[in-house]
Amino acid sequence: MSHPNFVSPDLIRQRFSKAMSDMYREEVPLYGALMELVEQTNRHVLDNDPQIARQLHGTGEIERLDLERHGAIRVGTAAELATLARLFAVMGMQPVGYYDLTPAGVPVHSTAFRAVHEAALQVSPFRVFTSLLRLELIEDLELRAFARSVLDKRSIFTPAALMLIELAESQGGLTEQQARDFVEQALETFRWHHSATVTAEQYRQLSAQHRLIADVVAFKGPHINHLTPRTLDIDRVQAQMPAHGITPKAVIEGPPHRQCPILLRQTSFKALDEPVAFTDQADACGSHSARFGEIEQRGAALTPKGRALYDRLLNAARDELDDFPNEANADRYNELMAQHFSEFPDTYEGMRRQELAYFRYFVTAKGLGADALKSSTLEDLLSGGYLRVEPLVYEDFLPVSAAGIFQSNLGDAAQTHYGEHSNRQAFEEALGRPTIDELGLYAETQRRSIEQCFAALSA
């Protein structure tokens, strides 16, 4: 049982998310402009779309909208990943899902650290997409050995952060002052450093293998490479970014525009070219680009049946395009996506009846005022107005979309074809625990909400 003087992990996560956002706003000024655009867009949607406003108020999501962020970080060793898992655990974040990005030419595999219960998500839905570099994919054996030696020498956590992680584990939580210190110390792992740990030539060799390899290996810390607010209308944000001095990527990743959004749609601006001092240079006369701004719009979480349909339609559109989506073929790609996804029902009721998406069930005022209805079926209660449903928000990521964002900021020339295949076992061994099946979490939330409704109606 938690000590009464311990700060809730959910509140520590909420504070850390805010501190991260403040730090990133200072480091990347365009992120501030992006935040202002997202806030303006969300206000516009809430003022002009009563249905979305009602839905957000009904689910409680309105309270978390301005807090919502996801970050991304890339680490180089199993030890770094395992310690990150312990750090995130202090904030109530667990590894959910396994993502293999090598089929898209990105030499990493990943998980998303996040809260797993709907009550915890309401306090803070902060997530961190965390990738582990697959050193075995560096073909040059000498360069691979060099990269491993550089990574083995660094420590990406402050001594105080490591001490506070151990303290939280041993005593079962952190007091108020300890929680404040933890946020301050943990933040240092994600901070940008202008000084590299390699020479300019070593950086060039790492970058020649893959620009992401240089990003992971050449610095003393992994640095947060983007921080993502949630918008209610990503198409509007995409259209207005140029007017705010922000150049968006050509294609919005994920499903096409829909009346009832599903899964996750993402866009971003190009990675910044930032000054870097290599170890054989006196001043920061080199440069590195990796950090960028990203925006996302989240929709309904899909069931295995819904994901299978989504994957089939996405693959059909991409196969017909027969190219990597880019500025030259963006209009054609959008047309193909809209064409193929016309097969996917665009009403929540249609998705619910075909069991394509997960939903949360709520008792209505009529249901609370009725006599015991325990013997009624779920469909009877819905049609009778005793229950209502809202789609469960997709809290996770899409490997094709993640790869598309990475590639758009690394450059198309960074695409590489790897012969290796998914290695979930190796990733989980490095992590020190299995990753959690995200679809199981959504199914459990849906089941729990139905049980709570029947309990309330039979009271």
From TrEMBL:
GO MF terms here are: dioxygenase activity
Q: What is the required cofactor set for this protein?
A: Fe(2+)
Q: Which InterPro entries match?
A: HGLS (IPR009770), YdcJ_bac-like (IPR047869)
Recorded hits in Gene3D superfamilies, A to Z, give:
Uncharacterised protein PF07063, DUF1338
Q: Which Pfam families match?
A: HGLS (PF07063)
EC number(s) stated in the UniProt entry for this protein = 1.13.11.93
* Keyword terms, alphabetized: Dioxygenase, Iron, Oxidoreductase
Q: Which domain of life is it from?
A: Bacteria
Report the family membership: Belongs to the 2-oxoadipate dioxygenase/decarboxylase family.
* Identification of the protein by name: 2-oxoadipate dioxygenase/decarboxylase
User: Which species does the entry assign this protein to?
Assistant: Pseudomonas fluorescens
